[in-house]
Amino acid sequence: MAISLSTLYVMIHLLAVFALATAPFIFFSVYADDTQNEWKITIPNGASGKGPVQGFSPNQLPVLVGDTIVWENKDSVTHSITSGVPEHPEHSGVFFDLGQVAPGKSVSHVMPDTDFLAFYYFCEIHPWMTGNFLIVVWKLHSQKLILK
Predict the structure, then answer these.
(1) CA–CA gap between residue 47 and residue 77 (Å, rounded)
(2) What is the percent of the chain with per-residue pLDDT over 90, rounded to a whole number?
(3) Of 126, 121, 117, 92, which is closest to residue 109 (Cα–Cα)?
(4) Is residue 145 a part of any domain in this protein?
(5) How open is the CA angle 108-74-78, to the nearest 5 degrees?
(6) Each residue's pLDDT tens digit, 60-116
(7) Parallel, antiparallel, or unpaired: how do β-strands 68-73 and 97-101 relate?
(8) Using an 8 Å Cβ cutoff, are 137 and 116 in contact?
(9) pLDDT tens digits, 127-137
């Protein structure tokens, strides 16, 4: 039985439309259920220097509301975790100020439900150490998945 090219063309397009239509729901069921994720950010040994060692690893992280972020200090000196950017100290700590993290210790923060799509943070002791979170917010309205 031979299939005409036009029939094959229609079948391929229907398959593509089905894949595109269901992909957000598959993502939603895997990543936006009631399970919270825990993300680890490492402060590596030597991070306090202005050398080649990156201050926070990773320094950019996409997260969901309700996820827990854990900073683990593997450096030999104390660091701090404060929301904001060093260039505007008057706004530092507005969203969170987790205080100082001693060597070998860790601190955590749960991402709140917010209208903000990004949070920036830095180490007040070593202000060249910066990072940010990109908030991925999924809302399900009337059988439609909307990325906010």
Answers:
(1) 9
(2) 40
(3) 121
(4) no
(5) 75
(6) 988 888 899 999 999 999 999 999 998 998 988 888 999 999 999 999 999 888 777
(7) unpaired
(8) no
(9) 999 999 888 76
> How much is the pTM?
0.67
CA distance 58 to 66: 19
Domain count for the chain = 2
Q: Are 59 and 114 in the same domain? A: yes
> What pLDDT, in 10s, does the model give residues 9-51?
666 656 555 555 554 444 444 444 445 689 999 999 988 887 7
Residue 52 lies in domain? 38-139
For residues 41 and 70, the answer to whether their CB atoms sit within 8 Å is: yes
- Which residues, 6+ apart, have CB-to-CB distance to 9 below 8 Å? none
CATH number at residue 67: 2.60.40.420
Question: Collapsing DSSP states into helix, strand and coil, what is residue 35?
Answer: coil
The span from the CA of 124 to the CA of 108, in Å, is 17
- Are 52 and 99 members of one domain? yes
